[in-house]
C-alpha cells in the first residue's frame, strides 16, 4: 500500500482505522480466487473468500480487506449475469 493509499484509507475510516500488515495482507491475498476461478464458478470463488472473512474476523475488518471483499462481490455479480 502506497503512502497515498494509506492516507486515503485513513481518511475513509478515520484515524483509528486498522490496516493490515504486509504479512496479514499476504494471508488475505492467498485467500483470493484467481480470475479463472471467478470466471468458472463465481459463487464458489466468493464463498471461499467469505469463509476466510468468517475465519479471520479481526483481519477482515482491517483495510484493505473490506474494500477487497466489496470488489470481489461486485466482480462475482458481474460474472453471474448472462
Description:
This protein is mainly alpha-helical and 82 residues long. Helices cover 74% and strands 0% of the residues. It has one domain. The chain is globular. It starts with a helix and ends with a helix. The model has no long low-confidence stretch (mean pLDDT 84).
In angstroms, what is the radius of gyration?
14 Å
Number of helical segments with 4 or more residues: 6
Question: Helix/strand-derived class?
Answer: mainly alpha
Order of helices and strands: HHHHHH
Main beta sheet strand tally, sense and closure? none
Number of domains: 1
User: What share of residues are in beta strands?
Assistant: under 5%
Q: Which residue ranges are poorly predicted, with pLDDT under 50 across at least 5 consecutive positions?
A: none
Fraction of residues in H or I helices: over 70%
Layout of strands and helices, then pairs:
Layout: H1 3-13, H2 22-31, H3 35-40, H4 42-55, H5 57-60, H6 65-80
Helix pairs in contact: 4-6
Quick structural overview:
Helix content is 74%, strand content 0%. The protein has helices at 3-13, 22-31, 35-40, 42-55, 57-60, 65-80.
Amino acid at each position: 500500500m502506497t503512502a497515498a493509499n494509506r492516507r486515503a484509507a485513513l481518511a475513509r475510516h478515520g484515524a483509528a482505522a486498522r490496516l493490515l500488515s504486509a504479512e496479514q495482507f499476504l494471508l488475505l491475498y492467498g485467500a483470493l480466487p484467481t480470475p479463472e476461478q471467478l470466471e468458472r464458478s463465481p459463487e464458489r470463488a466468493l464463498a471461499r473468500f467469505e469463509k476466510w472473512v468468517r475465519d479471520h474476523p479481526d483481519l477482515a475488518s482491517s483495510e484493505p480487506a473490506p474494500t477487497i471483499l466489496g470488489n470481489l462481490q461486485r466482480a462475482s455479480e458481474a460474472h453471474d449475469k448472462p
